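Ticket #4471: structure output looks truncated?

Reporter: J.K.
Steps to reproduce: submitted the chain below (201 residues) through the standard prediction queue, then opened the result file.
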Amino acid sequence: MSTALIPPATSAADWDRYYAANGEPRLISENELRRFRGQVRPRSSWRAIDLGCGIGSWTAQLHRLGMQVTGYDYSQAAIDRALRRGANSIYAQRIDFRMWDIVADPVPADLRPGTVDLITCRASLAYLDPATLLDKVAPLLTPGGVFYALIPLNTSPSPDPYYKGMALQDIVRLGRGRWTERSRYRLGDTHRALVLRDYTA
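Returned output as attached by the reporter:
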């Protein structure tokens, strides 16, 4: 007897219900942070944006590294929770959260080309039409700017509608021909990190 799998959540309403009900933050391991610092080489002077930020755990981590950062998500419930958490943080003056349907809406007017040093997309790239997303946001980066993504591997269908990964061969293809530097590395058996540097139009 077959069991039908629940399709991945894709709408803002799906995610609003999720974050209103629980929406626990995704854990950030010391290994991920260590590898991120070694591969990305972030600077405290950087301006960063965090795409698909959820309730802002990774966004806040970028702040702890000294960056000025804005987290974007299309779930109002997620943004509301992130703003409440940020307001109680010592980083509140340098952290912001805003609504943006990254796939459907144009780039916000205050994100001008060549003004962002780091774009991150942690565990949400598979929901955002990856190739189109890269072409959309890469021009925002400064010369030598970095795109970082943590990507769950889609090794088998998941019954969890709030977990969506990518096949390894699709991750390998991302950014080909448009970035001066491309690297990938393992984070355990279930995730890969992607680092793209210095976009060329």
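Triage note (M.O.): checked the attachment and the full token line is present. Helices lie at 12-21, 30-40, 57-64, 76-87, 130-137, 168-173.
Status: closed, working as intended.
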